[in-house]
Amino acid sequence: MTFRATVLTLYPEMFSGPLDISLAGRAREAGTWSLETVQIRDFATDKHRSVDDTPAGGGAGMVMRADVLARALDHSAPPGDPRPRLLMSPRGRPLTQARVRELAAGPGAVILCGRFEGIDQRLIDARGLEEISIGDYILSGGEPAAMVLLDAVVRLLPGVMGNVVSGEEESFESGLLEHPHYTRPKEFEGREIPEVLTSGNHAKIAAWRHEQAERLTAERRPDLWQAYRPRGGGKA
């Protein structure tokens, strides 16, 4: 089954680069997933192809119009389309690896990229959009966030990663950050690869990596650490 992504945006040309190279690009060429970009302005009805207007109640900036976006969404994902409708938004729920896996297991996604001050709330309510955030910061638009989401999803599609185990051992898959990595040369500027990693003792290597993952998570992401400990992990 091909994962079908449809992205509604004012800047379709932004998606022709990052998602056409490396794993995502090769998977797209192989037909593992498809990407359709939809120009929102094509659904405006005035001669200026307007997609926004001043905010009700006053204030700075402009707001994307519900009627224009509804026409674009209904054209791109008509009733019966099983794909979730996502809105990239700084006020959305944080994107997690668990949600990425859910999306990768599904038929695809319809992704709306906002601009300006945001989009009319009535569109969000009327079309049941799921708001998703990739972090606690503000971008100039939803396009970079949509690329991040798609990159995260596509790499989990069947056959995209050559080594499945590689994906299973990454940060967030077990609730922990990933352990440190090393490779040749054995010595670099006076720093050597930890001796346990060259010992050949796979049990000790696994224990060391797990210990390092716990240490890094406790130090750098106390939020993840607190969520991990009740599941039986962690000593401190």
TrEMBL record:
CDD domains per UniProt: TrmD-like
Domain tRNA methyltransferase TRMD/TRM10-type: 4-226
Binding site for S-adenosyl-L-methionine: G114, I134, G135, D136, Y137, I138, L139
Keywords carried by this UniProt record: Cytoplasm, Methyltransferase, S-adenosyl-L-methionine, Transferase, tRNA processing
InterPro entries: Alpha/beta_knot_MTases (IPR029028), tRNA_m1G_MeTrfase_C_sf (IPR023148), tRNA_m1G_MeTrfase_TrmD (IPR002649), tRNA_m1G_MTases_N (IPR029026), tRNA_MeTrfase_TRMD/TRM10 (IPR016009)
Principal location listed in the UniProt entry: cytoplasm
Catalytic activity: guanosine(37) in tRNA + S-adenosyl-L-methionine = N(1)-methylguanosine(37) in tRNA + S-adenosyl-L-homocysteine + H(+)
This protein's record includes keyword Phosphoprotein: no
GO BP terms: methylation
GO molecular function annotations of the record: tRNA (guanine(37)-N1)-methyltransferase activity
Record EC number: 2.1.1.228
Subcellular location: Cytoplasm
The keyword Membrane belongs to this UniProt entry's keyword annotation: no
Family classification: Belongs to the RNA methyltransferase TrmD family.
Function: Specifically methylates guanosine-37 in various tRNAs.
Quaternary data: Homodimer.
Entry protein name: tRNA (guanine-N(1)-)-methyltransferase
Taxonomic placement: Bacteria, Pseudomonadati, Pseudomonadota, Alphaproteobacteria, Hyphomicrobiales
Gene encoding the protein: trmD
